[in-house]
Specification:
21 helices; about 80% helix; cell inner membrane; globular; transmembrane transporter activity; about 450 residues; mainly alpha; TRAP transporter large permease protein
C-alpha cells in the first residue's frame, strides 16, 4: 500500500479510537501494533517490545518524575495561598488589580510547579471566589486563571521542554532559558488585556476607588500578614533559581538538578507548613506517581507509534512532501503553526511533542529556523489548546472549581487570552530575539 494512503488510514484509526474515549497511550500503542503486524507480520512484535522499553529507559527521563514530584510538593502545600495574598497586596492597586495579581501568581506558581493544571487549581481555588465576591465579571475571573495556568508548560522548569529536548536531542538547559522571556511577555500581554477588560466591564471593586484613608488602613492591616506569607514563599523561589543556575552553569544535569529540587521542595513543604502527617505526604507521592506513569506511558507508546510510521516510510514520505513544497519558509511556518494548533485542540502537549517534534525538526532546520525558537513557538501553540475546546483541560479545571459558572462564560473569558498568545507567536516571528537573546547571552 502507498505510504500516504497507509498514513491516512493510521491517522483515521487513531482519531476514531481517541474520539470514543480510548486513553491516548492505548490508542497510540494499539494502532502501532496493528499497523506493524499488517506491514511486517508477527515477528515485528519483538521490536515493538524492545522499542517500548528501550526508549523510556534513558537516564534523561528521570528528570520528568522528579520535576513532577517537585511541583506536587508545592501544589499540595499552602504556597499558592501565600503567593496569592502577597501579590494581591502589591498589585491590588492597579485597575483590575486583583485579576492582575492572579496572573502574577499564576506566573510565579508556574515556575514552582511546572504544571498548568496544578497552577489553575492552586490559584483558581482562592482567586476565582475572591474576584467574584469583589464584583469581577465571571468571564474575567475564570479566563485570567485559565490563561495564567497555561504558562506552566513554558516558564522553566517545564516538563514539556524536557520531553522536547529528549525527543529532539537538544539542550534542555538552553530550552529552559529560551522560555523565560516569552513566558514573561505572555504574562505581560495577559495583564494588559485583563486591565482593558476590567476597564470595559466596569463592574469590579477597584481599590483605587476607595478613600485614601481607608486604603492606607487596609494596607496597614494586611501588610504584616502578607509579608510573612511572602517570606514563606521565598525559599521555594530560591530552589527554582538554584536549579536554573545549576543547569545553566553546567553544575548538574537536568536529572540531578530535578532530584535535588524535588527533595528540597518536599522538605520545605514539610518544614515550613508543618506537613508532618503521613496523609499529605502520601497524597503528594500518589499524585506524582500517577502523573509520572501517565506521561511515561504516553511517551513509550508514542515512540512505538513513531517507530511504526518510520518503518512504513510514512514519516519520510510526509517530511519529503513538505520539504519539496516550493513555498516561502514563513508560509511553511504558518502551515506548521496551523497543524500544531489543531493538534493541540485534541491532544495533550506531551503527546503532541513526542509524536511531532522528531518529524518536524528536520523540516525546521532545512528551512533555516532555530530549533530552540521553534520549541517556544510549539509550546505556545499547545498552550492555546489548553484553553480551547474540545479538550481544553484548563477550562474543565476551572469548571470544577466554579461549577456555577457556565462553560460558555469560561470559554468566552478565555478566548481573548488565546488571541494574546497568537499575538505572542507573531511577535516571536517578527523578533526571534525575544526567545534567543537570553540563551545566547548566558550560554553563548
Amino acid at each position: 500500500m502507498d505510504p500516504i494512503t497507509l498514513g491516512i488510514i493510521v491517522a483515521i484509526a487513531l482519531i476514531v479510537l481517541m474520539a470514543i474515549g480510548t486513553p491516548i497511550a492505548f490508542a497510540l500503542g494499539g494502532v502501532s501494533l496493528v499497523a506493524l503486524i499488517y506491514d511486517r507480520g508477527l515477528p515485528e512484535l519483538t521490536y515493538f517490545g524492545e522499542t517500548f522499553f528501550d526508549r523510556i529507559a534513558e537516564f534523561g527521563f528521570v528528570a520528568i518524575p522528579m520535576f513532577i514530584l517537585m511541583g506536587a510538593a508545592v501544589a499540595s502545600s499552602p504556597t499558592g495561598r501565600d503567593l496569592y495574598r502577597s501579590l494581591d497586596l502589591w498589585m491590588g492597586r492597579l485597575p483590575g488589580g486583583l485579576a492582575v495579581s492572579n496572573i502574577g501568581a499564576c506566573t510565579i506558581f508556574s515556575a514552582l510547579s511546572g504544571s498548568s493544571p496544578a497552577t489553575c487549581a492552586a490559584i483558581g481555588k482562592m482567586g476565582i471566589p475572591e474576584m467574584r465576591t469583589r464584583g469581577y465579571p465571571d468571564g474575567v475571573a475564570a479566563g485570567c486563571i485559565a490563561a495564567g495556568g497555561t504558562l506552566g508548560i513554558l516558564i522553566p522548569p517545564s516538563v514539556t521542554m524536557i520531553i522536547y529536548g529528549i525527543s529532539t536531542e537538544t539542550s534542555i538547559g538552553r530550552l529552559f532559558i529560551a522560555g523565560v522571556m516569552p513566558g514573561l511577555m505572555l504574562a505581560g500581554l495577559f495583564m494588559a488585556w485583563t486591565m482593558i477588560a476590567c476597564r470595559l466591564a466596569g463592574g469590579y471593586n477597584n481599590p483605587m476607588a476607595q478613600s485614601a484613608e481607608r486604603l492606607k488602613q487596609t494596607v496597614k492591616e494586611n501588610v504584616d500578614a502578607n509579608l510573612k506569607a511572602l517570606v514563606r514563599v521565598l525559599p521555594f523561589l530560591a530552589v527554582v533559581a538554584g536549579i536554573l543556575f545549576a543547569l545553566y552553569g553546567g553544575v548538574a544535569t537536568p536529572s540531578e538538578a530535578a532530584g535535588v529540587g524535588a527533595f528540597l521542595c518536599l522538605a520545605l513543604a514539610i518544614l515550613i507548613y508543618r506537613m508532618w502527617r503521613v496523609g499529605p505526604i502520601k497524597l503528594i507521592m500518589r499524585d506524582s506517581l500517577r502523573e509520572s506513569v501517565m506521561i511515561m506511558l504516553v511517551i513509550a507508546c508514542a515512540e512505538v507509534f513513531a517507530y511504526a510510521l518510520s518503518s512504513m516510510f510514512i514519516t519520510q514520505t510526509v517530511a519529503g512532501a513538505i520539504a519539496d513544497l516550493e513555498v516561502n519558509r514563513w508560509v511553511l511556518m504558518g502551515i506548521i503553526n496551523v497543524f500544531l494548533l489543531v493538534a493541540g485542540f485534541f491532544l495533550p502537549p506531551v503527546a503532541v511533542i513526542v509524536m511531532t517534534a522528531p518529524i518536524l525538526l528536520p523540516i525546521i532546520l532545512a528551512a533555516d529556523f532555530d530549533p530552540y525558537w521553534f520549541a517556544v513557538i510549539l509550546t505556545i501553540n499547545l498552550e492555546i489548546g489548553l484553553i480551547t475546546p474540545p479538550v481544553g483541560l484548563n477550562l474543565f479545571i476551572i469548571k470544577g472549581i466554579a461549577p456555577d459558572i457556565s462553560l460558555r462564560n469560561i470559554l468566552m473569558g478565555s478566548l481573548p487570552y488565546a488571541l494574546c498568545m497568537v499575538l505572542g507567536i507573531l511577535l516571536l516571528c517578527l523578533f526571534p530575539g525575544i526567545a534567543l537573546w537570553l540563551p545566547n547571552l548566558i550560554m553563548g
